[in-house]
């Protein structure tokens, strides 16, 4: 994840002429386009006071899973654990919600606002075991920057 990509993310997020949701949408599209093994990129956010996540901006195929209860799937687990979740092989997970048969791996990084877990960025990949420390650090950076504009 290059410095150039990081500065492009910053440029998109700081563009105040664009509504916040559209800025997040652009970030999803940028990441999907620029990182070959990012095949679906989306944000989920807590749905009001409910114990569930609601799909926000995303890039990639539409998913049926627009609402995910806390605790369910990789996303729902991150909503309660507050921890990064890297899944090298989705077949090895019991508590997993399949969005597409082509997806082989997934990474979910929680997004904090004022120390509270308010959502997450979720990446699906059609490649097996592609995610490393660099992805975690990069996506933590993206979430920290997103948090500043929410
Ligand atoms: N696979 C996720 C569901 C969301 S989709 O990947 C878009 C999960 O298990 O939580």
TrEMBL record:
SUPFAM superfamilies, per the entry:
GAF domain-like
| Pfam families named among the record's database cross-references | GAF_2
Q: Using the record's annotation, list all stretches that form the GAF domain.
A: 20-142
**What is the name of this protein?**
GAF domain-containing protein
User: Matching InterPro entries, A to Z?
Assistant: GAF (IPR003018), GAF-like_dom_sf (IPR029016)
Organism of provenance: Lentiprolixibacter aurantiacus
């Amino acid at each position: 994840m290059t410095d150039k990509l990081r500065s492009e993310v910053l440029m998109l997020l700081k563009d105040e002429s664009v509504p916040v949701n559209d800025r997040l949408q652009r970030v999803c599209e940028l990441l999907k386009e620029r990182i070959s093994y990012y095949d679906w990129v989306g944000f989920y956010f807590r749905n009001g006071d409910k114990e569930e996540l609601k799909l926000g901006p995303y890039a990639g195929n539409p998913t049926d899973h627009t609402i995910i209860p806390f605790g369910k799937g990789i996303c729902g687990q991150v909503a309660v654990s507050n921890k990064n979740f890297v899944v090298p092989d989705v077949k090895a997970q019991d508590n997993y919600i399949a969005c597409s048969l082509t997806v082989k791996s997934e990474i979910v990084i929680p997004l904090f606002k004022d120390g509270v877990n308010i959502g997450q960025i979720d990446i699906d990949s059609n490649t097996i075991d592609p995610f490393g420390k660099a992805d975690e650090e990069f996506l933590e950076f993206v979430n920290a920057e997103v948090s500043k504009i929410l």
